[in-house]
Automatic annotation (TrEMBL):
Keywords: Heme, Iron, Membrane, Metal-binding, Monooxygenase, Oxidoreductase, Transmembrane, Transmembrane helix. Belongs to the cytochrome P450 family. This is Cytochrome P450. Heme binds at C483. It comes from the Eukaryota. Pfam families: p450.
Amino acid sequence: MLGILARSALAVILVPSAYILFGFVYRYYQRSLKFLRGPPSPSLLFGNDYELVHQEEVGILENKWFNEYGTAFRTSSCYGEDTLVIADPRAIQYVFHTSSYRFPKSIDSQQVTKMMFGRGIVWAEGEMHNRQRKALNPAFSASQLRQFLDLFQRSTTRLAKKWKQEELADTLDSGKVINVTHWLPRITLDVIGESAFNYDFGALDGRANELGEIFKHMFADSRLYPQKPLILWRAFRRSIPVSLGNFLCRFPTKEEKRFKEFSNASKKIAKSVFDTASQGTNGEEDLKGSKDVLSVLLRSNMTADPKKALDEDEVLSQMATIILAGHETTASTTTWILYELGKSLKDQSRVYEEIREMRDRIGVDGEPTASDYDSMPFFNAVIKEGLRLHPIVPTLLRQAAHEDVIPLEFPVISESGEEMSQIPISKGQRVSVSISVYNRLTQVWGKDANEWNPERFFHETKKDTTLGVYANLMTFSAGVRACIGWRFALMELQAILFGLLENFEFSPGPEGLDDIQRVPAGLMIPMKKGHWQDGIQMPLRVRVRN
Ligand code: HEM
């Protein structure tokens, strides 16, 4: 009996150890990028992974390494795996535009996105992704989005009113320091509730709701500075056969349970709206007047070839996806733009001048149209510059579906001193695409690429390689799975920024803004140096304009 137990225990220890050892050897010889230069690996077990996810601010290490090794280099990952890190424009164009689905998301990204969003568009790959994207496209067309403009403007007016009546009532002249990250996600959550499925989260009114509670600090609590065992566990799950790794995802870690809770809660809300919408007796007729994303999706689903229509779980997963992808992203981007304008009062005044001119043109009670916003040159240059310097998804992970050769615009020097203008990779190679570094490449954006300078968009030179969906930036990603909501986000940013900057002036509080850090938590979130226990922070002095 003891013999059987001892042998079983030995097997439990030996089989995974042998597997890990085999993985080390296999990866070392088969998927090696040792011909490329890169930083030394500080640990056999963790490679550079631990220091990368524990850096104080997003991109510090990557920037240092790009300066040292060029726009493509190698880092070591857990268990001896090599990762190819790229910020080279042609390489990114090849991976995202040219190769279509040949560089799917890495296994670990897929595992985490499934926990967060279910079987929705962010998780789907290949043909399934193509089918889901086609079903969602009509809901994000330019004409459809123009109908949301009034919602963006109404919500901004409500926030401005709230600040004037509650936060700033007794401080009309001097203003008051407000943590804007407390407010902006509330307005974007309300906007996404109404635009995605005609649902009132009541976040701006401070109404408690299950989703809001789960979401509070979700990224900071679950993705910020993961402990060593968690890093090893995730790396183990991605390096075993996919079906086994996916099976292990049924036993989520404490952090991952938050993602699952979020996904379940948002699907629960979407389900009630979905049931009401799909129980209408007249089907398509009942949905005709509704312009929210869910109604448009259900309408296109009813007319689609049944083989291509989305099933109920897929529809609900899209809603969970849109709630998350569509609210925190826009709120954070607005936060970073206000931060930059708080530091550069000269630029803020210039934007305000444009707003005043627009106000004179449209009258006191008028609201700008989409083309009015687009006609404000400096205002839009500020938005582009904010998106460039602060891409809130700083890195995307991909994995080669086949053996391949990635071309480079800026050749790199190999370990043996040769110039390389392309990089051969094996099937399964992990590729980490650094959006934050590409967006600051001096070769693309000029010598002052690390500085805030919206003017650069007035003197743009033709780029050798064009990328992304907007302003040659990678902030909304690129290619077949670029952000489907980029036009939505842009219009929402324009409406919120116009409304807030017309009513308020933003400046640094007494403690200044030097301590604000861009903390890596999957998304790039602002926190105060030495005050991480206080959560997400962007304290700005807000003064009502006379
Ligand atoms: C400033 C705001 C935003 C930024 C910076 C942003 C950024 C991104 C990025 C980088 C991706 C690619 C993710 C990946 O490949 O893993 C993405 C995808 C996506 N985004 Fe956005 N996003 C923003 C706003 C929005 C909004 C407002 C919505 C919806 C209302 C939205 C919906 C989506 C969806 C559904 C995808 C998945 C697309 C696909 O895989 O085909 N995003 N976004």
